[in-house]
């Protein structure tokens, strides 16, 4: 291991674009969509559109900062510099917490998916094998990680495109739909108790589920320190977000609800299985199992990468143990990968100790962490704008859209999501856990970090890091 190695810029535009795409397409879409549809009915389309607009604004805010100052640690670094060290500390560790929670859920899900084919093989064998495999991939070189994520994303995108085309075929030609007992067509969006069957309450309730489905897309910001051309690749990846949201979420859900009455979606397993089965594909469950396994591997791979890079950046600022600064000769923060793999081994134990319904609460906790990180990104961008001169603002290569109204809308939206999570009983425990987590971070910061912080040195360190990265 080299003490003088640095992060390698091995990610190109193709890697980053599909990394962002893959991180936003996972179990939240393949299975979580059915839950959102049951809550809001066809009006869930509005939830995906409104949430998608807010999340695009978040990504543009992050892009403005990442292109202006591409550093490892990304949004935690920006929160530390533009808001304060405590903000950066809570943002970074909350993101790591989110990645761990989601990865543990996906690790367990992977074991369940493999049980579909091999019910007699203990789940822990599959989980352990996957952890060792992904750990090895992340230790080799960041370019290897980028290539794996690219091909895993290709599988997911192909499955969704096939589902959309197949669904449109059912809508316009009625393939194999005559036996289903109902007709296909866009009239299914309003003939079953209306477009908003559960009222405005149902629409609001589904927002937290919809937001959870988008979680992970902020990983684009963490690639800035390892991107070959951050001023080109990051804007291209972020500008593709609206198209991805419209295509892979809005259009997918639109096709689903046009083929089936919204109140029948998900009653017979995944809605994707229903579409393939109605196309006459008998191996629909097997095809979907391959896709969801791919999605789980991709998500866990991204989680290990994201949490590792965040810990590396925080350790450089004294906000995480110094051991996370250790790099291999290929520029990989190997200790963060080892620690993440060790944490994921808890998934083997949790697979037996924690019942499935507890993971619904874990999903809510992950949603809280996601919204908190997005909120801090928005506040950091606002704080950065206030510190820049008029000339510096005009010189920004990738400014946020609709300043200052768009960021204000996104901030209000994030606060509204947190408020609604506290209002509805099913998600309320996540608010309690999130508040407790932030209190613990505040205590940890004041005990271990603040006494060692020197604001002047910290500011100088940031500028040195920025110069090194650029």
From TrEMBL:
Residue ranges occupied by any Amino acid permease/ SLC12A domain in the UniProt entry: 15-452
Keyword line: Amino-acid transport, Cell membrane, Membrane, Transmembrane, Transmembrane helix, Transport
Keyword rRNA-binding (UniProt): no
InterPro entries recorded: AA-permease/SLC12A_dom, Amino_acid_permease_CS
Species of origin: Acinetobacter ursingii
Upper classification of the organism: Bacteria, Pseudomonadati, Pseudomonadota, Gammaproteobacteria, Moraxellales
Domain of life: Bacteria
Protein name, per record: Amino acid permease
Transmembrane regions listed in the UniProt entry: 16-34, 40-59, 95-118, 124-142, 154-175, 195-224, 245-265, 285-312, 332-353, 359-379, 400-424, 430-448
